[in-house]
Each structure stands twice: as C-alpha cells, then as structure tokens.
Amino acid sequence: MRRSAIVATVxxxxxxxxxxxxxxxxxETLRTQLEIEKRTIALELTKLERVQELLRxxxxxxxxxxxxxxxxxxxxxxxxKLAERSIDVARAxxxxxxLIALGQQLRQGVxxxxxxxxxxxxxxxxxxxxxxxxxxxxxxxxxxxxEPGGLRGTFDLKLEGTLVNGTxxxxxxxxxxxxxxxxxxxxxxERIDAQLGFVATYSGxxxxxxxxxxxxxxxxxxxxxxxxxxxxxxxxxxDTSR
Length: 242
Fold this sequence. Notes:
single chain, 3 helices, alpha+beta
C-alpha cells in the first residue's frame, strides 16, 4: 500500500472515531495528519543524516581515486591501468552524484512538508478558535418554546470542545438533563427526563433572527406515550436576564 493511501486510511479512521465520540471530525483528521507529517519529517531527517555520511565517505573516496589517477598519469603508468583507474573514478563520481541527488530530494521533501505543516497548523488554530467562539455562542441559559403543546422552559447548556451537557426545566414540571454535540453551528441534544428517562432528541442550528441569536430545529420523541406528540419544532432564545 502506498504511503498516501496509508495516510488517507489513518485520517479516515480518525474522523470516524472522532464523530463517534462527539468530537469535530475535521479537526481530528487535521491533527492526525499533522502528527503523521511530523513523524515523516523525523524519518526523512534521519535518512538525510545517513545520506550525508555516505556522501562524505564517497567524496573522500572520489578525491583519493582522482588523486591516484593524477599521480599515475604524471608517472606515466601504462594505458591499461590508467583506463581501469579512470573507470573507478567514474564509478565514484556516479555514486557521489547519486547521493547528491538523493540528498536534494530529501531536503526538498522536508521543506515541502514544513510548508504543509505550517498550513495545517494555521487551519487547526482556526478551527480551535472557531470552536471557542461556538462555546461563547452556546454556553449559557436559553428560553425555549416547544411545539406542539406549547411547552415553555429553559435549557441551561455548557459546551466543552464539541460535547454539550446541561439541564432543563419545562412547563408541567418536566425537568432533567441534556447531552449532545455542537459541531459547525449544528446542535443535537438528547433529553433525559428525571422520571421517564430518555424521552426525545432535539436537532437544530444556530441562526440569527430579528437581531438575536437563536437555536431553531425539530424534535422527535423516543418514549411514545399514547396521546402525546411524537415530533415537532422548537426554538431557543438566549436568556439575557442575568
């Protein structure tokens, strides 16, 4: 398997794992790719050190053979032996040139990876800062309206990374906990009622309406009690009373 295919496979597995754990799959993929690039640079630098050692030895051998050839030419050594010496010098030159080319290739690769790493680091910082902005947008108390049924109450949410936890209180005495994710402005919450357990999922998106930030979306019941709504819409408005 080619290295590019291996990297793609590793990054895909990282994304799948991140999604399953409620983390940002794009950010986790970039972090995995960043780690792979750093490890690859370390390996290429080790190879470059070895190539430089070989080049040093090959250069010394070339200088020695060239000096011997020059001395033999001055001393008038017979043509057959001079030809053999010339062949040895040519082989040494070819070895030196091959090592020089390999060193150039490795240095170019390292430089290219350094540039790629800097680009990935910039994108990672941007996504991390974006996640922090999302935390500022979501964390806090929200006044919610749930339809049908006209339920009103509050969602008190806290975001850590892309994971959401919180509590809720709704009219009719319903209360309990919330858990879910917030990725790319999209929120998904599981409503765990203190008496009935896992009763509904809420999906929504952060939106800007009429000069205020809102959470808008739909909900679906998981506890299908007879005569109770099984789905609907919900809206959350940030509580600015405190």
